[in-house]
Records
---
Amino acid sequence: MATIEGSDVNKLVVACDAGMGSSVLLTSQLKKSLSPHGVTVEHSPVDRVPDDADVVLCHAGLVDRARARVPDTVVIGFQMFLGDPVFTQVETAIREGGTLAG
């Protein structure tokens, strides 16, 4: 399992598979909340996550595929596209410091 300090996160990628738009909405929300902290937020298909991603957020069902794509990167799964506590944990670690693991 990879780890990273929140203060070291420069690029966060929201990875998806279905293309239903929920992950695009999540990407937009995270851009607004994380850009003041110098974090770039991008959207990507799970099988094309960029190698320079520091953290990947994806639905729990896609975690294994994302880890296979970027094995040395922190990959964090979530259950719900809106209001999942994982998003608050990631934002808090970036804003206030803390370790992210996945």
---
Amino acid sequence: MRVAFFGGTFDPIHRGHLRLASAAADAFALDRVLFAPVGNQPLKAESAVASFADRLEMARLACNPAPLQPTTSNQQPATDPRFAVSTLDAPRADGTPNYTVDSLAALARELPSASLYVLTGADSFLDLGRWRSPDRLLELAEWIVVSRPDFPLSESQLAPLALTPAQRARVHLLTTVNEEVSATDLRRRLQVGDPCHGLLPPGVASYIQSHHLYR
């Protein structure tokens, strides 16, 4: 079984997250993509706008399995049955940060026979030196690194990470996703009453409206 850990703030989860996860699942034959909203992000000074409970529920609404339907570039992507939600990065009782290395170690114990992957953006991966135990992270899982349209990734950019040949072999680049949706931009638009049609899963859009989030 091939399982990808997809951590992030998901504030809110949007079309770009879902399309990225589907593309990775297709390209690397993933059986499951685990969306894991983070409780306490150690590398970001600002905290999430929505609560963890709200972000977790929005992720659940976005990942609720439904029959796949063809979509056009302007339609909301169909929900993928390979998607699931994880609480591995839920807030800790003592308020300490959530570290991906701890979450991956827990996932490895939970799924000892699975091949583990981490799905992340290029900008985050290039900051790997600031993550806790980067060598251990590369031991626990292979990495699927997505080049964003405004952040293309090249081999020369990976050079400062000084990856060994064995580590580099566990890093895979995904360059086929051209999705420019930004959670920061969505929050700005939602704050002024823009419903962001087509950019949010329908259940997420309804949840945001009914709970008056980002206003």
---
Amino acid sequence: MAALRVCYQTMEFDNVDIHVRTLRDNQEFSDDDGIAESLGISSATWPLFGIIWPSGQVLAHLMFDYKIAGKRILEVGCGIALSSLVLNHRHADITATDYHPEAGAFLQKNSDLNGGKNIPFVRTGWEDKNSGLGKFDLIIGSDLLYERGHSIMLSEFIDKHANPHCEIIIIDPGRSHHASFSKQMVSRGYSHQQSRPEHIEYLKAPLPKGQILRYQR
């Protein structure tokens, strides 16, 4: 694999530091064996998993003090998995998934950087039939709805892995597909609420159209 340029950052959550190894920027690319290409991941989209995006920061800060006792938690489309790292610090029962072939290796490295236990990771797509993930009480994700077809695919994936009583939290930066996703979730029997993120002074830039999407059944 061609050498990737990475950087190390420390994300602050009150008095807790979470250390992360990310790609240096969104121009990095390495797919010598064509694995990502075979999965339909282009050179343009390849680096997106390896950057900490504002929506991911909002989700991680929300998870820092969220009620998690007794809940089995799934992070969907985790990318660098900042929220999973925060939850792992809190000794949560957290599993992470992503379609990208390098996401698991970055998650392992970042778990080691923070001295935490290994976070279970499954590389799976939303249309995969047998991921082996099982069911969850809380399903979370950030900035997942960036293509038209994602509303149906994601809602079906979530419904497949949601316990009869389940909470879902998706942070959306204001993309145009979140309304159709909410319609899909409501049609599957989930209640729906949404609100604007508050107290986001930790972001370098505002999230003017950002929404916290919440679903429950």
---
Amino acid sequence: MKNIIVLVIVAVLVTVLLVSVRNGLIRKEETVKEQWSQIDTQLLRRTDLIPNLVEVVKGYAAHEKEIFEQVAEARSRLLNAKGPAAKAEASAAMNDWLGRVLAIAENYPALRASENFTRLQDELAGTENRIAVARTRYNEAVKDFNASIRGFPGSLFAPGLGLKTAEYFQPPAGRNLVEPPKVKF
């Protein structure tokens, strides 16, 4: 009788442990999805601000048509990019073109003094900070999730739950998204 009670207690403890591990993996997967959503939200916010910034600068520098077309194209690529690697590549291209737009402002003192330009520039700077924070949080969530599904006992459950390692949000090869874009004319 005593052995049966011990076996029942062990079975209950093992069941609780297994359920806990499974639920923990699911929670971590959802955290990764949530953090990715934060990056996506901030990238979308940036793409929404860019047309306003471009319009303000365009009024002062109408002859810079090619740059404005390239910004529009980069914005479109960012909006259509899927997944962390594609978003990182499109985001890096957007940073390059934004740097060029902001460089134009250096040549137009009246533009730099424009309240609209200053406000939009501040909004973009704030958005870039939010993107950096969201990217860091996402990568931390990915690290935690990947370690959980690759380690024991998570590796026993991951295949059955269809869990695969998540992709980090990294700058494209040879580029660093933390550094400000380089401006070259």
